[in-house]
Amino acid sequence: MGKEENPAAADKTMAELLWNLMEYIPESIYFKDKNNRFIMVNKTKAEHVGSTPEDIIGKTDFDFYPREIAENMAADDKRVMETGESIVDRVERLIRPSGEERWVSVTKAPLRDEKGVIIGTMGISRDITERKRAEEALREGERFLANIFASIQDGIGILDKDMNIVRVNPTMERWNARAMPLVGKKCYAAYHGRSERCEICPTWRTLQTGEAAYEVVPKHGPGGEIVGWLDLYSFPIIDTTTGQMRGVIEYVRDITERKRAEEALRESEQRYRALFENALDGVFVIDAETMRVVLANEAAANLFGFDSAEDVIGMDPLAFVPPDDRDRVIRIIVEDMFANDLRQVNEFRAITRDGREIWIRAVGARIKYQGKLAGLVSLCDITDRKRAEEERVRAGVAAARLEAERLAAEAAAKVTEAVRLTAEKYKAIIDELKQAQKKLTEESNLFQNFLDSIPTVIYLKDRDGRYLRVSKSYQMIHPESMIGKTAFDLYPEDQAKEATEGDKRVMETGKPIDEEGRFTTPDGSEHNVLITKAPLFDKKGNIVGIVGIVREKT
């Protein structure tokens, strides 16, 4: 048998061991009697209340803590002693004597003597302030992220690796209210009413590749019908600790209205392109910055002798205009169309690809094309109309010349016949001559009446610019006041110079011309007119003046 131990020595050894353990353990340890007075505490407990183990003995919690906290501690001690049941790992808030707030995990148990009788309480508390702060920070972060998650107006969903919905934001719940609750369901079942994953699925690609993906996918209604379209982006969720993918974040944006707008715009563009391409008139679009054709239809290409609209793209529109008319056309394009958007009808000559001269009528409008300032020009070939007008003018001039020659010939014949008569018939001859003069005057008046009866102004001038005959014209000056006068006697100097230069060109070249002009009547009103001028010949073919036909420009 071994040597019998001394009980007193054993108790002393055990007390020393307990004391050493209490001194070095980081938790607060204490023992209280039935009156809640401390009978033993370790160094950590003493430091927490700002004291020493020796000074604490015999004192209570009321000596170290605010009354409210001390009362709660005393109530806990009483309940433990009355029930014999322990309090295990209860989290409590403490205010230390220094005023510092701390959080502790408290375990309290009844203190018994050797007979099992409860003689007080013992407790151990662990400071968990840092853990509480970390938990609160984590909760605050979660609340912040949850608020963001809920506030985003686009849909957000989180899926696990098996495509099960883990979490969604309110937008996703609103879009898919027919399938609520969404969490726990397969995404393709909840969102699309399918029993298997979609054929086109960016989420599946992300799960397979670990990379972000994107697709436009249909949005389904309660009956499974397509009611819209969604932009679907999928991003891998990576565990920062292991580097492994844990699931997928889906970011979803409803683009139904955008798709509808795009479709409406596409249909509108198709309609207008069909009108543009099939228009009977030629149509150009001219870029304001480069002054080049950037769009043309087939009618425009054919108008100028090209095989297709592509042949016209990039050309300078002035290449189709005779050099003499280019300044005017530039003014029409730059000032009237681009600067003022006047949308006026203009007529001018043009040159085709093979050098033919044609007449065109053009109307231009200022537009935006591909975000830039441009002009839309509609073109119509009026060559046949212009030629018909010229033919009518030439026919009128020829008729007037023939009539004048006929009258002159008749008068000359009568004069010759009168001279040939004998003296004895002088009186009869004189009588006949008077009758001839009378008839000549009547015929001359008839010619004047012809001139005065037509709505268009016709006049005859001699080589010095003096008016010989002038018809009356609606809303214009009376011809009687013009006979024997020149343009300088009737109009302002600048208008007279313009008229005289045209007269001179006709008599020098012997060819008719068309020109625009203006004149001011005695009442002060100004008239813009179109004038056709042609040479006036005598019987020998010599130019003795000009014939002019004036039409008021409307």
Written description of the protein model:
- The chain is an alpha+beta fold and 554 residues long.
- It has four domains: 119 residues, PAS domain (Beta-Lactamase), CATH 3.30.450.20; 108 residues, Beta-Lactamase (2-Layer Sandwich); 102 residues, PAS domain (Beta-Lactamase, 2-Layer Sandwich), CATH 3.30.450; 166 residues, PAS domain (Beta-Lactamase), CATH 3.30.450.
- Helix content is 39%, strand content 29%.
- It has 15 helices and 20 strands.
- The strands form four sheets. It has a five-stranded antiparallel β-sheet, with helices on both faces. The protein has a five-stranded antiparallel β-sheet with strand order 7-6-10-9-8, sandwiched between helices. A five-stranded antiparallel β-sheet has the order 12-11-15-14-13, sandwiched between helices.
- A hairpin with a 4-residue loop joins strand 1 and strand 2.
- Helix 12 packs antiparallel against helix 13.
- The longest helix is centred in the C-terminal third of the chain and has 38 residues.
- It is rod-shaped.
- The mean pLDDT is 82.
